[in-house]
Write a structure and sequence with these properties.
Blueprint: E1 3-8, H1 11-19, E2 28-31, E3 40-43, H2 45-48, H3 58-64, E4 69-71, H4 75-92, E5 96-98, E6 103-107, H5 115-133, E7 137-142, H6 145-152, E8 160-162, H7 168-172, H8 185-191, H9 199-203, H10 207-213, H11 216-226, E9 243-254, H12 257-278, E10 281-291, E11 296-307, H13 310-327, E12 332-343
Parallel strand pairs: 2-4, 7-8
Antiparallel strand pairs: 1-6, 1-7, 2-3, 5-6, 9-12, 10-11, 10-12
Bound molecules: thymidine-5'-triphosphate (TTP) and magnesium ion.
Length: 351
């Protein structure tokens, strides 16, 4: 099997730079309000040089780089651009499993007899993506998903990293254990004190040590992955949606908060089910309000990591609704909740 993992470079920021070339070379942060409690969705590479990264508070980003430019995300536009990107990729490599708005796996086995041919395909993909959208992407090529995914991050931006069959374990061994998908903060908390700080150290754990640190199936699976063993296939799925939303127009305008919160609960439950069914997590929750006079407002919040549970979606949606109603009270003819910033690959849960 020859798998490629494609990931666009500084995706949201790169789109903003394309639309306003004067932003290029300047530190640029796409995210929330630096005056308020907004977080960084992404930063361009100029801003990353100041230590700014995704999920950092915008206030902190501004402390690190006071002259950075802050822009708000335009999710539906990124969704449009993403669709053009994936259409361009499919022209070169049709077997695609998109796992997020800006990343996915390609099965190159049929098209590429060897890793050299796979590299040529990766170059063709970069050319196609750049040609149709002006964006750059990075690719990793390997015999499995986990290795391809880690490889795509090695030479960002614009790089291609090929890990030929047989070299997987050696490639992974020196890397920080947190780079292994599935090792989240909680697994790290257990591994670090035991001096398991590299992927190689995890790969080399004996059964007993592994069971003590990461019990059960999860530990075995992570150790396999640390060894470059990953039997997951590229499963072409229909394109994941860029956003999912629900809205409800009332027969009569509604002003009771409680009734509005109840509506949001129903919608959050349905969104949660739909996310769950597709194995997706959402980073952004948006509440939409339409007043009796048809004025429409939306309020969004973006989280550092994705969620799919109804309770979280509901409480965020209610906070956003309350904030909007505090700013502009009034009876509503419609409320809605949407989730976007959808990611396909839920991190393995540590139980
Ligand atoms: P990433 O691929 O993680 O980041 P990136 O494309 O901005 O940068 P890189 O060059 O390192 O790949 O995420 C893709 C998009 O998802 C990103 O442009 C913005 C969004 N995002 C968030 O909204 N919040 C987050 O915490 C992260 C990590 C990403
Ligand atoms: Mg990316």
């Amino acid at each position: 099997m020859i798998v490629a993992h494609v990931d666009l470079d500084a995706f949201f920021a790169a789109v903003e730079e394309l639309d306003d070339p004067s932003l290029r070379e300047k530190p640029l942060v796409v995210g929330g309000d630096p005056q308020g409690r907004g977080v960084v969705a992404t930063a361009n590479y100029a801003a990353r040089r100041f230590g700014i990264h995704s999920a950092m508070s915008c206030a902190e980003a501004r402390r690190r780089c006071p002259h950075a430019i802050f822009v708000r995300p335009r999710h539906s536009h990124y969704g449009d651009v993403s669709r053009s990107v994936w259409a361009a990729i499919r022209e070169v490599a049709p077997i695609v499993q998109q796992t997020g708005i800006d990343e996915g796996y390609l099965d190159l086995t049929e098209q590429a007899p060897d890793f050299l041919a796979a590299r040529a395909l990766a170059e063709a993909i970069q050319t196609a993506v750049r040609g149709t959208t002006g964006l750059t992407c990075s690719l990793g090529i390997a015999s499995s998903k986990v290795v391809a995914k880690i490889a795509s991050d090695r030479r960002k931006p614009g790089g291609i990293t090929v890990v030929p069959a047989g070299r997987e374990a050696a490639f992974l061994a020196p890397l920080d254990v947190r780079r292994l998908p599935g090792v989240g903060p909680r697994a790290e908390e257990r591994l670090r004190p035991a001096e398991v700080t590299t992927i190689g150290a995890l790969a080399g754990l004996g059964d007993d040590d592994l069971a003590a640190l990461l019990p059960g199936k999860l530990g075995l699976e992570l150790r396999d992955r640390a060894r470059g063993v990953d039997r997951r296939r590229v499963e072409p799925v229909s394109e994941p949606p860029v956003s999912i939303s629900h809205e409800e127009t009332f027969d009569r305008d509604v002003s009771e908060r409680e009734r509005l919160h109840d509506e949001l609960r129903r919608m959050a439950e349905s969104l949660s089910r739909r996310l769950h069914d597709r194995g997706l997590l959402a980073r952004t929750v948006t509440t939409k309000l339409r007043y009796g006079d048809f004025t429409t407002r939306t309020r969004s919040t973006t989280l550092p990591s994705g969620i799919d549970d109804a309770e979280r979606i509901h409480s965020l949606a209610c906070e956003l609704l309350d904030r909007a109603l505090d700013q502009r009270p009034g009876a509503l003819r419609l409320v809605g909740v949407g989730v976007s910033g959808l990611q396909g690959e839920a991190q393995l849960a540590l139980v």
